[in-house]
Amino acid sequence: MKDEKKATRQSYGEALLELGKKNKDIVVLDADLAGATKTELFAKEFPDRFLDMGIAESNMISTSAGLATCGKIPYASTFAVFAAGRAYDQIRTSICYPNLNVKICATHAGITVGEDGATHQMIEDISLMRTLPNMTVISTSDDVQTKWAVEEISKINGPVYLRLARLATPIIYEESQQFEIGKAVQIGNGTDATIFATGVTVQEALKAKKELEKRGINIRVIDIHTIKPIDKETIIRCAKETNLLISVEDHNIIGGLGSSIAEVLTEEYPKKLIRLGIKDTFGKSGKAEDLMQYFGITAEKVCQEGRAILAKKCEFFVNFLK
């Protein structure tokens, strides 16, 4: 990871601007949050292709559906709590049911919204969106990956939910990194444990990897940027090749990344999975970093689970030497 940090919502705004220059069918809609979602960058350059719908998220989604039927590629932008929550009915019936080409780009997802508190901390959106037929669900971890995703989803003919964060996080990947929708990214080849992560928790998984390696525990991190369709092949391979499986997410542990992985394991290769995330509760108001600590989705918490491997290793060698 690099020292430089950038919020994926900022990367989204920058990528939208560049995409707009390449593709005249791109239109952007926002619900009175252009400054926060960073769609203001697109609006300034292409005012004739930008619609501020006001505080009317459901109407924004319905309008996006209409634009899609006219051959446009709408990017509908607002906070995750409004996109996946308030406008769920319109997403389900007006976009997913007719399988329309609308990109729902939701910023400020998870508890890392911070001081906005529980009402604005959307920790159920992955669960809601991945259960919808025809929907692709993507959760990006850094600037490079987000800019790739913003352009790549324009090439998919169908609904997409792109999950973005408010919190600035380190840039993980080089510009040359290759990504593919539906294919996770593996970082490291450790066989002691696999840490599955998505979005802002990828940085925490990488910190844990570095710390555990100092203790002789070899870890691989799997960045699952595409929650649906999920990379079954990589999950099964990691289950076979590593001793411990851990998932960590800025989301309710019910229905999110951990549940998605558990579904694959149950059907294909049964193995225990330790799920770290929000334990079926609402969020709280506080600084993003403090909330991550409180809810146990930090490198420190991952390391606690990983150290159990070291304890088992030591126990094995003690018994072996007796």
CATH architecture of the largest domain: 3-Layer(aba) Sandwich
Quaternary organization: single chain
Tally of domains: 2
Q: Fraction of residues in helices?
A: 40-55%
The neighbouring-strand order within the major sheet is: 3-2-4-5-7-6-12
Helix and strand sequence: EHEHHEHEHHEHEHEEEEHEEHEHEHH
Overall pLDDT level: 93
Radius of gyration: 20 Å
Description:
The protein has 322 residues and is an alpha/beta fold. The chain contains 13 helices and 14 strands. It has helices at 8-22, 34-37, 40-45, 57-69, 80-86, 88-96, 125-130, 143-152, 201-214, 232-241, 257-268, 288-294, 299-321; strands at 5-7, 26-30, 50-52, 73-79, 103-107, 136-139, 160-163, 168-170, 185-187, 193-197, 219-223, 226-228, 244-252, 274-278. The strands form 3 sheets. The protein has a 7-stranded mixed sheet, sandwiched between helices. The protein has a 5-stranded mixed sheet with strand order 9-11-10-13-14, sandwiched between helices. Helix 9 (201-214) links the parallel strand 10 (193-197) and strand 11.
